[in-house]
Amino acid sequence: MPQPIVLVTSDKLSDAAQRILQDAGAAVTYVTGAITEATLLPIFAAAEINAILLRGSPPLTRRVLEAATHLKIIAKHGVGVDSVDIEAATEHGIVVVTAGDANADAVAEQSIMFMLALARRLPLFQRTLREGKWEKGSTVGREFRGRTVGIVGYGQIGSRTARMARALGANVVLYSRSRIADTGGMEVETNFDSLLARVDILSLHCPLTDKTRRMLGDRELRMMKPTALVINTSRGQVIDEPALIDALQDGRLAGAGLDTFAQEPPDPKNPLIFMDNVLCTPHVSVLTAEAMNRMGTAAATNIVGYIESGECNTANVVNPAALKR
């Protein structure tokens, strides 16, 4: 069998993942700098790439996939594949597989961190202390226990976030477009508008699709309590960002915890970055040493298994129709 060539859409990969690929005799190529359709096309023209270990969200468009004539598998280093043209991949027999629950604990932990920090108004207290002010007693936070947390999207991450929130004493309400087989005894709300009106904290864990894009807009935000918090560790585009900014500035929403933005990196002048009732991080909820190792090894194992024997973790294949081609 010719030496397989694996393209990593990043300049780094965990040591364990590298060893899996190297032990399989793969030649690994890393992409540095900004990745666009224009930068990807020459790579596929110059080399017979057999697999992509997908880090980040580079544009694997129809044009790119049609140029990748030797590509067999795209293994995501995580779970989000909204940058991949799944229809085109399926047509060309390219399997798209995620790392399953490898990053779920890390993202769920950050979601809970956002909830706790915002409930206690930590961004404000951090800023005032740095300014030399001792604001003890002038502003009070709120306890997390007893608050109603709405979980939108009950996949690997949403389910873990729900269980963590419940363990800390929150009243958890689940919302999902698909039927939830095992709710763990938690309540399910089937009407999104009703959920919005009820929750003290709304935590978003849904993939980015045509149905979820800007699902939280001006109309939806006006349904929420002015004391409510919005947490987003999914994709920035599920929120109408200008509407969120208006709601926060007008006092119609108490705060937001954001790990993702509509544009990444965001404009340095984006108002969200400077608000005392917003806690922002640069899309790093998955970046723990443990999660990086799990995601890398899962992606590398899927690549090696599929190239060598046509096997991968089929439970995490996004386009199972490609397996039959």
Describe the structure.
By secondary structure, the protein is α/β, with parallel strands linked by helices. It has two domains: 134 residues, NAD(P)-binding Rossmann-like Domain (Rossmann fold); 177 residues, Rossmann fold (3-Layer(aba) Sandwich). It has eleven helices and twelve strands. A seven-stranded parallel beta sheet has the order 8-7-6-9-10-11-12, sandwiched between helices. It has a five-stranded parallel beta sheet with strand order 2-1-3-4-5. Strand 6, helix 7 and strand 7 form a beta-alpha-beta unit. Helix 1 runs parallel beside helix 11 and helix 5 packs across helix 7. The longest helix is centred in the last third of the chain and has 21 residues. The chain is elongated. The model has no long low-confidence stretch (mean pLDDT 94).
**Could you give me the name of the CATH homologous superfamily of the largest domain?**
NAD(P)-binding Rossmann-like Domain
Helical residue percent band: 25-40%
Rounded radius of gyration (Å): 21 Å
Determine the strand fraction and express it as a percent band.
5-15%
Number of domains: 2
Estimate the global geometry from the Cα principal axes.
Answer: elongated
Main sheet? Answer: 7 strands, parallel
Fill in the CATH topology of the largest domain: Rossmann fold
Structural class: alpha/beta
Query: Care to count the β-strands?
Result: 12
Strand order of the largest sheet: 8-7-6-9-10-11-12
Strand and helix order: EHEHEHEHEHHEHEEHEHEHEEH
- CATH class placement of the largest domain: Alpha Beta
What's the number of helices? 11
Low-confidence residue ranges? none
Chain-averaged pLDDT: 94
Q: Please give the CATH architecture of the largest domain.
A: 3-Layer(aba) Sandwich
Distance, first to last CA? 20 Å
